[in-house]
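Fig. S4 source data, part A: sequence.
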Amino acid sequence: MSRPAPGFTADGVDLIGYHDVDGKPVFKLAMQVVPSETGERWYLYATHFWEPRLSIFDVTDPANPVLAGAIEGPDHAATWQVQVADRLLVQGMEHRPPAWGGDPATYADEGVRLFDVTDAVDPKLVGQWRTGDHGVHRNHYTGGRYLHVTAGRRGFEGNIYVILDIADPSRPEEVAIWFLPEQYVAAGNRPSRRISLHGPPYVLGDRAYLSYGAAGVVILDISDIERPQLVSRLDIGAAFSSMIAMHTVIPVPARNLLLVNTEAIAEGQQEPYNFAGIVDVSDEHNPRLVSLLPIPVPAPGAPYRNFSTRGGRFGPHNQHHPQGPELFADDNLMFMTWFNAGLRVYDISDEYLPREISWYLPDDPTERRGLLPKTLVTQSEDVLVDARGNIFFSDKNHGLHVVRLAD
């Protein structure tokens, strides 16, 4: 029996649906729409935070998500990442860090697994690619021949960019890699700070936009897919370089903008400030940060004066990625999770003056379902908005929320 949605406070956002997922919190989200005899069926693919599992929901009626299928395993791996396009599902796998319940002494598979999801609720494994190291983190796939991954590689510090040819998904082939020179520790380099491609490498046309941790934003020309070339780099400096630092870069090509954010990792904000902001790339050789999104503010009467010190992680995490026709796209809106500040929605029609227009904050969990956070508070994780305007978001210790902007 599914438990009801937790209580919440909100402004401009309405709750329409919830699924407790049998007490097993979900994490990253992807969407597929499939024609059927009775009309389109909408399927949400959700990885799990604390188990090596991927759940498949029929969300044709978003008010009543139905758990319709699953991909189990592989054992001990962190199967946090998922992408779906062209009836192909890409499951990312990496070694689970000890803080998230991993055991370095236990074997775990890694890399990517490719599934045919022509039958949306009964995926068929068709191929796999391994890094030979700790696996992959975030990936980008919008259909077609190439899959763009962040991958561990022996001899390198942090993740690097790898392009895979999956024209034959049963035999993925590596066609290119790209990395910052200081990452190549096998050649004797010793980076002065933690540099790692967090990703995903967001690819649009012949450009790849890389969220490169403490190295900031990197723009590559991939018109020659086998030889990526550096276009420019925006260094964010020590003031903004938390442990993970630059986490996401999403291009808004019609406006020559990039929507960027770092990721909070330390609880109680015991690290450099984490920000979300807007970068102007009218001159892509000289990207410039033009604004920062406002910091979420607790609602009147909240039992804490700020989110920074209330417990858990505070700061931006995931943005909605408008990377397919089944997903919502509006160049003037930005959807983002802010860990213990819940879901936040921004009007970015004036890139110099972004403003928060609505938010939704679930009440803190009453039952611990995973190892983190150390203080049991809400930790909103991923957000996906479908083309119908339904907003799905996840949490470390809650189920799957479905909300909408209020009329």
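Fig. S4 source data, part B ends here. The chain has one domain: 20-405.
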